[in-house]
């Protein structure tokens, strides 16, 4: 039996290392868009440790980092993917729907080659942020249809390591990343897909907690993240209290009508969807 879905498509639009620093932008366009068409929180929590491979791994595989077992050292050393007992949301979608178009665009290659399973027909593209955005817009413009799409930009984290997290230089990089994500939203809109899509805006961790130019600790600056959902299926009064990054996996699955694996820790926030 088919489980009801809330959206025909899900786009997970991410940036690395932006924490909850959207609040420092003159006017965050992503937060604005989410307030208009959904919900946004600046008080979500990422997983521990607050490191990219661990946290993106939890977002994709729906479990805490100790369970999925992927970490940054492994990401640097091995090109080949995690053999996780916990399916990513891509594998979950593919097992049910062999015909669906699934795509993953990442500026940091270990996400695509370490965390998104190989051999399940996910269209993968890796490039620096500017080229990645161009390629993603082109892909969205030309695809017959897309059911699940993920993009992760890198510059906010790179700037944090270089100039410090939650600094004017990093805020500039976050504002630029917002512009890039909005170009993706425009590309989706040009296809007429906004009316039946769920858009999620995410980041994997913050920074500047224990070290000005680093992250990884459980300090609130490293751990606190923004999280936003937009689309006609989103209940604007949803309560995002207590949301953690891994819950994103459950939101993706529920939106597309995919049963949430019992093995996942991820849960859908209370009353996130309308109806
Ligand atoms: Zn980093």
Automatic annotation (TrEMBL):
InterPro entries: Alkaline_phosphatase_core_sf, Phosphodiest/P_Trfase. It holds the Pfam family Phosphodiest. This is Type I phosphodiesterase/nucleotide pyrophosphatase.
């Amino acid at each position: 039996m088919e489980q009801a879905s809330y959206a025909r498509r899900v786009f997970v639009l991410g940036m690395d290392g932006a924490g909850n620093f959207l609040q420092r932008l003159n006017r965050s366009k992503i937060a604005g868009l989410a307030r208009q068409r959904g919900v946004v929180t600046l008080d979500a929590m990422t997983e521990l440790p607050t490191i990219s491979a661990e946290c993106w791994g939890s977002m994709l595989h729906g479990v805490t980092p100790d369970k999925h077992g992927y970490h940054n050292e492994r990401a640097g050393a091995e090109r080949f993917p995690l053999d996780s007992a916990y399916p990513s949301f891509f594998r979950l979608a593919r097992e049910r729907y062999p015909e669906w178009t699934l795509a993953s665009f990442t500026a940091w290659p270990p996400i695509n080659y370490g965390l998104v399973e190989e051999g399940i027909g996910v269209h993968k593209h890796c490039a620096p942020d500017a080229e990645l955005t161009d390629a993603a817009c082109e892909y969205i413009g030309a695809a017959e249809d897309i059911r699940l799409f993920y993009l992760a930009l890198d510059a906010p984290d790179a700037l944090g390591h270089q100039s410090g997290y939650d600094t004017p230089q990093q805020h500039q990089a976050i504002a630029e990343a917002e512009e890039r994500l909005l170009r993706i939203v425009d590309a989706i809109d040009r296809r007429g897909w906004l009316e039946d899509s769920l858009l999620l805006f995410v980041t994997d961790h913050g920074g500047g907690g224990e070290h000005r130019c680093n992250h990884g600790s459980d300090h609130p600056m490293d751990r606190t993240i923004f999280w936003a959902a937009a689309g006609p299926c989103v209940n604007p009064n949803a309560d995002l209290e207590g949301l953690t990054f891994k819950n994103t996996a459950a939101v993706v699955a529920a939106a597309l009508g995919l049963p949430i694996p019992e093995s996942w820790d991820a849960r859908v926030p209370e009353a996130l969807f309308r109806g």
